[in-house]
Structures are given as C-alpha cells and as structure tokens.
Specification:
Elements lengths: L6 H8 L22 E4 L5 E4 L13 E2 L4 E2 L2 E2 L10 H12 L4 E4 L5 E7 L2 E9 L7 E9 L2 E7 L2 H15 L3
Antiparallel strand pairs: 1-2, 2-3, 4-5, 6-7, 7-8, 8-9, 9-10
Amino acid sequence: MDGQITIWDYLKSLEPVQNPDDSICEGCKWRGCATRRLEVENLGHTWVYACPGTACANYTHGTPLNLSVLRRRPYCYNRDFLPPMENLLLLLEKQYEIRFKEKVWPDGDIQWNYTYRRTTLSLMESTYMFGDERRFISVDWSDSKGGFGSPCDNLYEVFKAVDKAFLRMEGK
C-alpha cells in the first residue's frame, strides 16, 4: 500500500480546513494571554478556553465565541470580577507555568505558596472588615530582605501584583 491513498483519506482531504475565528476579540487585553486556547468544533464554531477575561475562567468548559455574544462581543468579565480561588489558581499556574502548594493554618485559613530561589509568593482569600464584607485576594511576596503585600479586588489587580512579584523574584 505504499503511495496509495484510502477512500477515507481522500474524503478527509475534501473537508474544508476551518481556522479559529477570534476576530470578535479584536482589541481585547486578554487576546495575547499565554493560557488562552482556541478550538473549532465540528459545527465550525470557535471556542475559547482558559482566557482570563472570558466566562471560561473555569477553563474546562470554554466559551463559544460564535454563539454567546452580547452586542457582538463575547461575555467578558470586567475589571471588577474576582474568580473563585480554585479557578484563579488554575489561571495563574497555567499563565506562569508554576505550581502552588497549599498550607493550612491552625485557624483553618488556607494559604497558597510558590517558592523560587528563597523567595515566596503567597495567595490568600479574605474579606474586608468593619461592615464591608467584600472579598479580596491577598498577594504577598517575601524574601530574606523584605517583601510586599497587596489586597486585590479583581483579576486585573491580581495579575498586576503577581507580575510585580515575578519581577522581584528575578531581581529586577
């Protein structure tokens, strides 16, 4: 059968090649995100996975760019959105290619740590006090010389604080 083609190979070659269409995401700040992945389903619709800006922050489900649109835009989270911690950890681990380790404190609080070259990046979920029960993510970075901490109210602030921590980890 060297050099011969089967009927199935021939029929497959007749199917049109479908490229993902994410033109609807033109100008989106998350379009170049490393975790973002596009797929074309068998009906020809483009789906986006693991894009921090879209409704698929829970990356296993995806968002159909060709179907669920509002005013010609996919449903994207705005700057005020803060995903659940488990989704946030997945996004950060994929974006920065790292793995967080869980630490449970005696009072039951859970802290997520990533250690690199004697520096530690920590994430913790909490709420503000004194009647303002809004949730935030505490992003802390520390080494033997000091560190910083930042309460983050949304996804944008979390990524900004983690970027700053990675710059410090690299000595910049």
